[in-house]
Amino acid sequence: MSIVGFGGLGKTTLAKAVYDKIKVQFDNVAFVSVSRNPDMAKILKKVLYELDKSKYATINEAARDNEQLIDELRMFLQDKRYLIVIDDIWDEKAWELIKCAFTDNCLGSRVMTTTRIAGISNVCCSSSDDIVYQMKPLPDDDSRKLFYKRIFPQGIKCPDELEEVSRKILKKYGEVPLAIITIASILASDGPDKQIKPKYHWDNILGSIGRGLEEGDSAKDMQRILSYSYYDLPSHLKACLLYLSIFSEDFELRRDRLIWMWIAEGFVQGGKKETGLFELGESYFNELANRNLIQPIDVDATGKVETCRMHDMVLDLLCSLSSEQNFATILDGTQ
């Protein structure tokens, strides 16, 4: 099973909850994160250690290459019913190497992965028994519950004067649990008496998390969280993505029109002679969609995206980056 979705939706949280609930059903278990620039030997050693902390207590001191570690894992797992979670996979090559260690021993073993990239989730689920679970944004009611739970002391309801500003904050960032938690941490009641912060403070936060995400340590944390996906892109995709900063929030874009606009701006260049510029632009679009940086709205029967939009949080980051890099400038609310 592979869990896929935009950063901050709670993929790791969901995987960990499932892991904790069912791990008692298995002989050996491991939960290991990969990240963007993985040290594969270190990851394989981590899996071994998690599977049997007594046997592999000194595994990190062992001088073994990837092939030796994979062989060790295969031998250890061959007669075990195991549960392994590989969290936050960014690179297909990393998964291809890790999966070599997992043997199908017909004992009901399970491997779960999480990733932000749809293409990788499909690679992780290569057999007919595998499932790709697409994370969805939080419903409004759940978003509000999480937001208030993080802000108000137990048993305290949101004051009437804060309902409207709360609604505006949640309308902008309420789909993503990580964003909710980050913003709520700024507004959380503090001090020994758990005093609720005044409305002007909430209004200031609402203004500061609008366009730019520039003020406050927590806002910088959110910007850094979102920038992981951006800085992982090759330069030509960064230009295509930054171009989307010229559109307003929730603007629905026709896929083909966007690709032609990229071509007209000179962002789509080169490629093999047999590949036209439009086909190359399509590959750019698909890569951005796979990374959940573009949100599909309408998809045809063949799975081809027809219209798309930008998530507000991504757009805020792009506008900030666009201004810093002099890519586009905001003038009187327009660009």
TrEMBL record:
Tell me, what is an example of a GO biological process annotation in this record?
A: defense response to bacterium
- Specify the NB-ARC domain's residue ranges: 1-154
Record carries keyword DNA-binding: no
Q: Does the keyword Disulfide bond apply?
A: no
- MF GO annotations: ADP binding
Q: Origin, by domain of life? A: Eukaryota
For this protein, the record's InterPro entries field holds: Apaf_helical (IPR042197), Disease_R_plants (IPR044974), NB-ARC (IPR002182), P-loop_NTPase (IPR027417), WH-like_DNA-bd_sf (IPR036388), WHD_DRP (IPR058922)
Which positions fall inside the Disease resistance protein winged helix domain?
Answer: 246-317
- Assigned keywords, A-Z: Plant defense, Repeat
Question: Which species is this record about?
Answer: Triticum aestivum (Wheat)
Q: What is this protein called?
A: NB-ARC domain-containing protein
